[in-house]
Amino acid sequence: MSEVRLFTTTTEVQANHILDLLSFEFGEEDYAIATTEVDEKNDIWQASVYLMLYEEDEIRARVARAIAEDYPDLAIEREIIPDIDWIAKSLEGLTPVRAGRFLVHGSHDRDKVRPHDLAIEIDAGQAFGTGHHGTTAGCLEMIDSVVRAKQPRNALDLGTGSGVLAIAVRKLVNVPVLATDIDPVAVRVARDNGRRNGVPAGIEWRTAPGFHSTAFAEYGPFDLIIANILARPLMKMAPQLVNHLAPGGSVILSGILASQRWKVIAAYNGAGLKHVRTLWRNGWVTIHLQ
Ligand SMILES: C[S@@+](CC[C@H](N)C(=O)[O-])C[C@H]1O[C@@H](n2cnc3c(N)ncnc32)[C@H](O)[C@@H]1O
After folding, report:
1. Fold category of 86-289 in CATH
2. Which of 89, 122, 141, 181 to mutate to test the pocket of ligand 1 (most atoms within 8 A of CB)?
3. Residue 131 CA: which ligand 1 atom is closest?
4. What is the pLDDT of residues 179-219, one digit of tens each?
5. Rounded to whole angstroms, how far apart are CA atoms 176 and 48?
6. Terminus of the chain with fewer CB atoms < 10 Å: N or C?
């Protein structure tokens, strides 16, 4: 389903003021609101709200009302955010990808693996996650540094896709991992990839939308939760996700555009977590919280 960005183009001061007006209008509702610098030299900024296409008329009227008194002549522009075809994205480029100590490669590139690589073999297929996308690579790099700093006793990979992140955790530490996806095809592919990468045991693969499965109570709470989904569902599931986190545990989130970063951090601050570090890759961010 397509997303829309409604925005006004103005100065930094006015964009920040509009951000306040929009924050007041939309309050706790689940809309990402952001300011972005377009041209530093000429002080051109945009204040934006992100919504689904079907909501456009209603939200446009509310934005117009919210800014009418202070900015009666300011145009409300629009941009359709292209649907992200996750599988097509994961097929972009088939050369091996390095992230942290990991090398993610297809079966045709086995000879590219060096002795100290933590190699993960994933062929592009029916599930997202060959390592080429900035979100997957960001998660791999963050997993490497988080697990190196403190070994978890168990982990959850929510939205496992090809299984690449669950496999990465198992390549680093011999701890139980629960890997779930809303898509049963992805779960089947991920299970096969687990087998192919020599980690058939130790990862429990389950089909589950969000946290709707008894598996979470059975295997949780978790020391490490990784979720590479999208900003909106991640913000919505913040309280539930934090409920499944063991005290002192770490959360790694991705699928978040750089412009959505603060909104997601705010949602998780609200659920009791603190931001530790952000990694940027190709316009996407990966966030570590504790
Ligand atoms: C961006 S892909 C990430 C795949 C892999 N973890 C990676 O990092 O490359 C997102 C995955 O999350 C799954 N997903 C989306 N919404 C979900 C939800 N509410 N619950 C569980 N899985 C979900 C999708 O089916 C997809 O496989």
Report:
1. Rossmann fold (3.40.50)
2. 181
3. 9
4. 999 998 899 999 999 999 998 789 999 999 999 999 999 99
5. 42
6. N
How many Cα atoms sit within 13 Å of 215 on the Cβ side? Answer: 21
Residue 224 near residue 147 (C-beta atoms within 8 A): yes
Atom index in ligand 1 nearest the CA of residue 226 equals: 6
Chain segment 230-253, per-residue pLDDT in tens: 999 999 999 999 999 999 999 999
Centre of ligand 1 to C-alpha 159, Å, is 3
Q: Which two tokens stand for residue 212?
A: 């709707």
Ligand 1 centroid, distance to 30 Cα (angstroms): 20
Rounded distance between C-alpha atoms, residue 186 and residue 198, angstroms = 18
pLDDT in tens, 139-156: 999 999 999 999 999 999
- ipTM for the predicted complex comes to 0.99
Domain ranges across the chain: 3-81, 86-289
Question: Taking 80 as the threshold, does the pLDDT of residue 267 lie above it?
Answer: yes
Gyration radius of the chain over CA positions: 20
3-state helix, strand, coil in the chain (%, to 5): 40, 30, 30
